[in-house]
Amino acid sequence: MSPPITFRPLTAADFPLLHTWLSRPHIAEWWQPTPTLDELRDEYLPCLADAATLPLDAPAGLIPYLACEDGQPFAFIQAYRVMATQADGWWLTETDPYALGIDQSIADPDRIGKGLGTRMIRAFLEVLFADPRVTKVQTDPEPTNARAVACYRKAGFRDVAVVETLDGPALLMNVHRSA
Fold first, then answer.
1. In what order do the strands lie in the sheet with 72-81?
2. For position 129, which CATH number holds?
3. Please, which residues have CB within 8 angstroms of residue 113's CB and are 6 or more apart in sequence?
4. How many domains does the chain have?
5. Which helix (H) or strand (E) holds 43?
6. Given this model, what pLDDT does residue 48 score?
C-alpha cells in the first residue's frame, strides 16, 4: 500500500527548492518562462501569510503547497480562486465565486508515469472539496501535454474545451463536487 500524500503550505525557506524544481527540463518544458528565484519570491511571498486559510478565504486568492509522501516533499501544487485571476486577464467568463483552479508538477522525472500524480491530485481534491463551498475545480494543461491530460482524466477531470489563454492554448478541464 502506498503511503498517504499530505500537503503543507509553501514557506519562504522552500523558494530555492521550488526554483530548482521549476528549472528541471521535464517541468520547464510546460511551465514557461521558468521564473527566477526573485520572481518566485515576488509571486508567492504575499500568499504565505494566507497559508493557514482555505483557498476561498485567501485574500490573494492563491495558496501554494508542497505535496509530501512520508513527510518528504515531492511535488508543487497550488490552488487558486478562479475569479481572483480575472484582474490579471484570466478566466473572464467565470461567474462561480466558489470555483477553484489547480496547477501542479512532480519534481523528479523518475517518479512520473507511476500513478503518483493521479494519487496526489485525488488527495488534493479531497482537501479542496472538504470546504463545502467549493463547487468545482479546474485545471488547464497544454493540450499537447498528453501525460498531464491523462493524469487529470484519471483523477476525475473532464474536458470542457480547448481555450485560448494568456499563455496560449489550454485544455480547460474540470471536476464538480460529487452530489
1. 5-9, 62-69, 72-81, 99-106, 136-139, 168-176, 158-165
2. 3.40.630.30
3. 147
4. 1
5. helix 37-48
6. 85
Contact 107, 66 (CB under 8 A): no
Residue 58's nearest CA partner among 48, 50, 46 is 50
Which residues, 6 or more positions from 116, have their beta carbon under 8 angstroms from its beta carbon?
Answer: 69, 74, 75, 106
Below-70 pLDDT ranges, the chain: 179
Task: Indicate the pTM of the whole model.
Answer: 0.91
pLDDT at residue 179, as a whole number: 58
Strand boundaries in 34-151, DSSP class E: 62-69, 72-81, 99-106, 136-139
Q: Reduced to 3 states, what is the DSSP secondary structure of residue 154? A: helix
Query: Which residue range(s) make up the domain with 153?
Result: 5-176
The phi and psi torsions of 28 (rounded to 5 degrees) equal -60, -30
Tell me the β-bridge partners of 8.
66
pLDDT at 113: 85
